[in-house]
Amino acid sequence: MMLLPLIPLAWSAARSPAVATPSWTAARSPPVASPARRHGAAAAMVATPISSSDIPAAALFLEKPSTVPWEVHKFGGASLATAELYKQCADLLVAESRRPLADGAASAAPTMAIVSARGGVTDKLIAVVETSKSDLPKAVQLLEAVAAEQVAVAREISSPDAAAAVERAINADVRSISATLQAFAMLKSVPTQALEVVSGYGEVWSALTMEAYLSSEGHASTWLDARDVLVVQTTGEAGLGDKGSTNTMGTDPLWEPSEAKLASWWAADARTQLRELDLAAAAPIVIVTGFVAATADGVPTTLKRSGSDYSATIFAKLMSASRITMWKNVDGVYTADPRRVPEAFPIDSLKYDEAIELAYFGAQVLHPSAMTPCIEADIPIYVRNIFNPAHPGTVITGRACSLETSSLGWAGEVKTARKQLRKAACPVPLGDNSAPIKGVTSVDSVAILNVQGTGLMPSVEMSSRLFSVLHRERVAVLMISQASADSSICLGIQESDADRALEAVRAEFFRELDATENIKISGISIEEDKSIVAVIGEGMAFRPGTGATFTKAMATAGVNIRAIAQGSSERQISLMVEREECTKALRAAHAALALSDTQVSIVVLGSLAEAGKSMAGELLKLLAGTGRLAYRGSSLSFPRPFLEPSWNLPAGSRTAA
Fold it and tell me: What is the rounded CA–CA span in Å between residue 651 and residue 640?
């Protein structure tokens, strides 16, 4: 274990850059109404030798004692698709670093930004590798075209000197990659590790480009290749994984060596100017490559496809950041996909557990496993819109009640309600005008795997054999529904796994399927073209009626439910429906569970009389108390309009044309 020098109790002009000091810990003004958060080494330091594992990386990272914490931002490839977007993201970083502290003190926040490859570059680099196996000249041509596009972006937004430095670095990388492609062409195959190395260059070029613009604008900045500091171990299958996968499991950060390497990188002489910045004037901005990392042996690897979110949360924990902002192209996390449910709107706040459920069931939040570092360090995650930075977005923070806590609360409430001769109320409180659920989401391209029993095989035997074979085949199970009477099981799986799963399960139960007597399995089949629709929210735990409302909405909309399941935490209920009915099901659930406005038509006969006008006015005032009233004046058989301009209606109400 590495020992560090004694931690001094006061600032001295002559300091070793490797000396550790307290991290910046004061809270900055959040863009939404929420209490200030504190993270990092806020406790008093003592002059005793300590190890790097005892100090957050933020404390190791900076020399000067200060009260300002690091802030971490993450930009995806879609936000970096053009030269103009690179400028917009970089300018946003500078603006965010200069937001005033909660107490109004003038100070800049040290800022770290994790960047993905420019939009589409990772896919192009993978295509380069695949092409090299059959057509090396074409592969090199594709590679040079990708590199030229990145250099063009750097030239457009950076000074000539900065752009030239980026071009030299990229050209050197192109030469190295080209040599690797020659080996692929000779072998007619691509080792998994080599594919990970080549595909990660997009992030390196992206970080170089953004930092070139910042330095050209005179900002104190640098860039960091995560492969030099982020140490991970692979616990799952090697390879890039699937694009858009809902998890990054299989790659775990090694915190202690990563912290040590990060501190050593910052202590280098090349970063002296950044370490000595006066935060009253400016703060350092560090641009970090997402997606890439290295093993303990120094071998380059990745955090799998779509793993830049994971990079961002790992660095947020390493830096003891006060917050992390995921910049998207929407105003936060929505109650449903607005492309399918036009009435969907941004959610103000989510618990980590709710966000994980939403992400697992297809919502574009961030990857479930990527939230783990922030959960462990209690770092709030903000999801905001790069094209509308004034919007507060969605904040993800805090844990939902555990199943045990909710269960005990419900049991106590039931006993109390019985004594008081009343109905039991849900122990999980809701906010004002809040619905029990936070969102409705879906997973498309789902297939049902049906294993139909006859009751002669014990359900425990069937379940054990079925899930064992699916585990061997690496088939992910999305939902489960079981009938214990005849030992039948219905599983939801990805359509892409359907044929493989069917073949493997039939092979496992071939004796039962071929039997002519004492038949234990009557059939194994696959049904495709299905979708899973799920409602998610902590508020529906132990709250009677939510499930009934959900299923009734399906019946009212004429949507057939093929299977149904509920998680043990009661934070989600999922239904299997036909794919062609998925959008209809989403809209029906969104409206029924109080996430959409409900249109009510009220006719007041005799409204032109004084009594009618008075009653109608009071009715509108009552309805307007919700703050979401839209009213439409009409006249069926009267010459004057129903709604007269002279009526005094509540502020905040609006008329519909």
Answer: 24
